[in-house]
Amino acid sequence: MLQWILLALTVLGLGFLIVRKPLWLVPLLAVAVALEISSIWYPDLGRIGEMLGIVSLTRLTSVALILAAFPRLLYISEMRQRFRAIVGDPLTVILLIYIILGAASMLYSADLLKTLTETVRLLVLFAVFLSIALLMDRNQELLPFHAVHITALLLAPLSFYEAFTGNAIWHEQALVKGTIRVNATFVDPNIFARFLVLAIVANFVLQLYTREKSLRVLYMGALAVLLAELALTSSRGGVLTLLLILIIVLFMLPNKKAVLWVFGLGVLCAALVLFIRPDIWDRLFSLSGGLAAAAGPVRLYLWKAALAIFADHPVLGTGLGTFQTVFLSDYAHLKTVASDVSLSHTTILTVAAELGIVGLLVLVALWVILIVRVFQLLNISGYSLSIFTNYRNQYYAGAGYFLWALTVFVSSQGEGRFFEDPILWLSCALLVVLRVMRR
Fold this sequence. Notes:
The chain is mostly helical. It has helices at about 1-20, 25-35, 45-50, 55-70, 75-85, 90-105, 110-135, 145-155, 155-165, 190-210, 215-230, 235-250, 255-275, 280-285, 290-310, 325-330, 345-380, 395-415, 420-439; strands spanning about 175, 180.
């Protein structure tokens, strides 16, 4: 009964936002991504649930975004103008090409049903992307940064509770060999770590738009909390992703002192956490044993399988979403350990196996366009302009969304979610908005 009440309240709340405050659905999506635990809040919807998949706040918010945006196209001429500009944007075009490529792979797919399912999923995410771009106001481009930053900080008490009591509130598989890997409201500690890196990027961007010194001090304190949370996830991929992002931030954003301060603070927080929880040390520093040792035997056989599939189907692959089917049917002999894991955990290898060289070329083209977009925003905004004038420097926000997309991509080389992550589509939508609205 309680689950039905929560579902009704969620639907009513989203309905209000659809009608009265559609813009706020965008930051709500960023918050919903952090609440994977919401999948247990709602009741089993039977056959409808089977069609929708797992009912969660993220999926409900995604549907709300689509319902808020597309009907408005019918009676708001300015939105129709914006829609034409969005559809013609190179970033939109390359994302659509990837979806078309995936849909076309149904012609030769090794598993037609899975390819169809993945294509439909990407089409829904593409609709969410268009909805965000249609609803978002250029003057509110910092809202998603605030949403992710605040949400990550609100999860800190729960993270510390899990770390120091050893009680995971959800998904007890977070316990690995007696060591609690903090996952808070996420299924996977690695995805929680990814979200924390997104929050750290948001912190850097928000600092650039902050004039008051006292508020900057608060942001620095927030960074310490976020770094401590990240350490408690024991996520090697999360730590490596953060290191790479911080290096790139040194080149892309002007607050280099803050980045260097984070490096020092990170060492201090890590030392404190590892002093309190020395069991984390062995996991984080297993990287010293080499990439193969850090990856583990499970990921190694998945890598070998992906490379073998790519070698046998180099041009077009075996079809979108078919890695698991092809691996289990034709390449299961490559498993070197007893394990039930059969899904690819590396985006680049997944694309190579499922869509071949053509898919990899589209992926490369996506990143070329993203990089070009950042330089376009740099040229439009003027890197040397003061961010405290009435003219807001759009480059900093654009750089932040580029770093978000890069965070998802780098993290997905160890976890696998890239095109499936709503944060990628949100980031791309904002990069389109910053260019289209500027024009």
